[in-house]
Amino acid sequence: PRKIIIDTDPGQDDAAAIMLAFGSPEEIDLLGITAVAGNVPLALTARNARILCELCDRPKVRVFSGADKPIARPLVTAEHVHGKTGLDGPELAEPTMKLEEQHAVDFIVETLRKEPEGTVTLCTLGPLTNIALALQKAPDIAQRVKELVMMGGGFFEGGNITPAAEFNVYVDPEAADIVFRSGVPIVMMPLDVTHRVLTHKARVQKIRDIGSRPAIAMAEMLEFFERFDIEKYGTDGGPLHDPTVIAYLLRPELFTGRDCNVEIETKSELTAGMTVVDWWQVTGRPHNAKVMRFVDDQGFFDLLTERLARI
Ligand code: BDR
Ligand code: CA
Predict the structure, then answer these.
(1) Does pTM top 0.95 for this prediction?
(2) Which GO terms of the molecular function aspect are on file (predicted)?
(3) With contact defined as beta carbons under 8 Å apart, do 20 and 304 qualify?
(4) Residue 10 pLDDT level (bands cut at 50, 70, 90)
């Protein structure tokens, strides 16, 4: 199985990603979960990660707490989407498992140095603060990362927190800039992909029908999460962003995209956090990311449902 670290700010869609990984032990060896501030403040994301481990009967998974704010800006959160706790929807018990004492950034550095070069994949589902801090602290780790698969950015699709920027990159553009300049092989799941995987009613019902406690909780989370888009945009469901990252590890053929140069806007007030994707290869700048654009959405939901049923 592929060794991964999940860096996350749960978030109901982060929860779906984590559960997709839990349901795929043959392909995925989860070395640890690192929490970062994003959708809600750090204390809550670190709590939510542990709640998910316990909900899915994975109390041995190590959960680390990381950066409580972006590198150079005040934290922006998204309770308007995810609710006060970040995991609003189901009734969830407070976690009893402990947080690891080590800081998430140190865990990331130590793991990448300890494991054989090119064997650890970083899966990022929130702002890139922890990863950027690790790269700053230990630049030698850049060449040791197998791949960094991230949910973040948007290009033809535009932004979801400002007209130009997607939330994860907007929250910490300086961190994203460090990551995109680091030389780490990046796979990017932008809004162009994630806005095509919508939680239609029948899809959520299939998850609920699995009947297990984690699956029912997942269905309740999705019903809370999707109401934001349904009410605001009149869509048939909410965009299930973060699990596309794990789905890519399991079934890369569900996604299509191309190698591009991507730069991050950090200076402009109007477009801070914009991912400037050179899709048409007009700059001649070197490729630094595989940018996905299309997805087999039904294939994605079939995979998610099948794996949730294995938890
Ligand atoms: C991203 O922002 C968060 O609200 C979601 O969890 C996802 O990671 C989508 O823009
Ligand atoms: Ca997230």
Answers:
(1) yes
(2) hydrolase activity
(3) yes
(4) very high
